[in-house]
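anyone else get weird line breaks when pasting these?? whatever heres mine. first is seq + tokens for prot A
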Amino acid sequence: MLLTTIEVEGDALRLHRLPQAPLEQSSAAAPEPPVAAELPSSAAPDRPYSPWRSLAPRSWLPLIELAEGAIRLGVSTFGQDALGRERLHQVDRPTSPVQDERVLGLVAGIDTRREHWLSEGPSRGFQLRLFAETSHGLHAAFSGDVYRADLRLHFPLGKTVLSLRWNEAWGEPDAEPFQLGGSDSDPAYLLPILNQRDFALRGYSSGEPALTGDRARVGTLELRVPLRDVDRHAMVPPLGLNRVALNVFLDVGAAWARGAGPDYHRGIGAELMAELRAGYLFGIELRLGVAEGLDDPGKTMAYLRIGRSF
């Protein structure tokens, strides 16, 4: 090993050699394996697993619904147990049958609707959607073809809006039948919904035999009148009320078997529509309405729904 040092008289270069004998020696013997310590056995008896202690929901959402003669109040929350289970296995208990539905569909449509700044919904234009669905060869609970046309029109009349909807559906005898009734809201999704077999007919309960069949037709006429642009919000919590409107409607619909004729049922009513705001950005539309079915088995029904009729 050569070593260079800086000294008083100048730089010096020195040579260092290792000694002939090694500085240290190590044994080549393999180390002894560690002795495994005996773990104490658990004497606790077996007991059923309970996930409740590990569930810790972090959010909740209130649920309020008044419709079909029922009042539902509650909250929605979510949690997951420590084992991350996603399936429920019941032992020695009867299980309810699950209806297997499989559908292939093709959808085409056009949408020219526009919304005025002070309007509570679409104020002009139209939307047309055409559905073609099949369950042939899919080994599901139903088999058959289904075709449907859904047309929606909006005409501005001053500050009010006249809205019309025509829904025509045709299905084969082996396909899932259509059902009319209830006051369900139109889905708020941008994408069309396949395998839809239930259509609202306000003033009637869903599932009535007289409103079930392979063919279905529903027409709706609504006059939507804006009442007030409230636009008031609270800081804490950040909730507010944007607009309030009145909707007067007429529903006419029929469902019948193939080869028979339609038996139309009429329903009239009114809805108070409000738009709630959360966080100054997210809107929630509410419908508080009352409907009267003019034909048998119609009745007077009150309901509270989230979302629009159409």
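and prot B, same format (seq, then tokens)
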Amino acid sequence: MNRLGHRWTFAVLGAMLLAGCSASPGRPRANSETLAPNDVLDFGTLYADNCSACHGAEGKGGAAIALADPVYLAIVDDATLHKIISGGLSGTAMPAFAQSAGGMLTDKQVGVIASNIRSVWGKPGILDGANAPSYLPKTAGEVSRGAAAFKTYCASCHGPDGRGGAKGSNITDDSFLALVNDQALRTMVIVGRPELGAPDWRGDDPGKPMSEQEVTDVVAWLASQRAPNPGQPYSVPSNTQH
């Protein structure tokens, strides 16, 4: 083999050795570095790690409401959605996720979750032509009017006293009411729980949507059913011996 042939052979062998080293076991591949928790900005990862346990895979609902519900996203604005994720929702099981409020996520990560929930699952114009009740109440509710509205719109599924029926759960259960505040109740009355077959404010009495005030009054009635000491089915005598 001539000198030129030797040089070509060594060049090929060198390239093979370098390639073998780059793919050797235990050697990190390109773009395989593990990100620090604060640097994760992928929506799918952030949602799966922080939200899916309660709100379900792909936002389809679970212990908490479905975030992939376009009706919900149509009544809650960006600032409110960001605020809920950042600071939680007092009086509910929704915790604060922002580091500034004691959570684990940076403000940038909270922003990624909030903006993508809307961009991925929202449907602009879904409420066009519908006079949707506002996310926040505009007036105070009245309990007696709420009782009447509950019978009209809710009792057919949840029973006349809210303790459950053939098509709906017990929504005056003291443990349930202890885990949801008035705003959470209002949200559920307006947007329903579509993943559970519960309609929004337009479907409880077909052709007769609930008014803004009726929603507010039903929430007032539900709130009035809260037990002072939830989760205590019986009293313990003070002279009980141990």
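btw re prot B: Residues 143-224 form a domain with the Cytochrome Bc1 Complex; Chain D, domain 2 fold (CATH 1.10.760.10). The chain has a mean pLDDT of 87.
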